[in-house]
């Protein structure tokens, strides 16, 4: 094999390996739970996330609604909720610091400052402190160029 043929073969092999890594990094696991309502980790609460009716779109700020209820379905008011998250496959967090800004309806909270900077798998982790109980809820979201995968 000539020197130029060997170089070409090495470049082609490296390109194929890189393309495979990029595809694997950007493909969410097939078995992700994409539900937007489920019990909290310790089943103390039922948490429902409601994205904006239009979108959300990648790269834009948006507000979501969060409905919080007891395991029996009663609305939970005056909860303290912190929000974190990121892209598990990329190892970085959210580009913003979303936060609960108001509770316009008993047990329904508005989260402002949500933004997804790129397509792919994101997770949202909520720490909930309400009525003397603490728990967490985790949501998996897949953003596409067309918006939130549902």
Summarize the structure.
By secondary structure, the chain is an alpha+beta fold.
What's the end-to-end separation, in Å?
A: 52 Å
Helix and strand content put the structural class at alpha+beta
Mean pLDDT: 88
Quaternary status: single chain
The percentage of residues in β strands lies in 35-45%
Overall geometric form: elongated
In DSSP terms (H or I, runs of 4 or more residues), the helix count works out at 1
Low-confidence runs of at least 5 consecutive residues? 15-24
Helix content range of the residues, please? 10-25%
Total number of strands = 10
Strand order of the largest sheet: 1-2-3-7-6
Keywords: Signal
Protein name: FixH family protein
Pfam family, one: YtkA
InterPro entries: YtkA-like_dom
What would you note in describing this structure?
This protein is α+β, with helices and mostly antiparallel strands and 150 residues long. A hairpin with a 2-residue loop joins strand 9 and strand 10. The N and C termini lie far apart (52 Å). The chain is 16% helix and 45% strand. It has a 5-stranded antiparallel sheet, with no helix packed on it. Strands 5-4-8-9-10 form a 5-stranded antiparallel sheet, with no helix packed on it. About 7% of the residues have low confidence. It comes from Paucibacter sediminis. InterPro entries: YtkA-like_dom. Keywords: Signal. This is FixH family protein.
Provide keyphrases for this structure:
single chain, 150 residues, alpha+beta, five-stranded antiparallel beta sheet, 10 strands, 16% helix, 45% strand
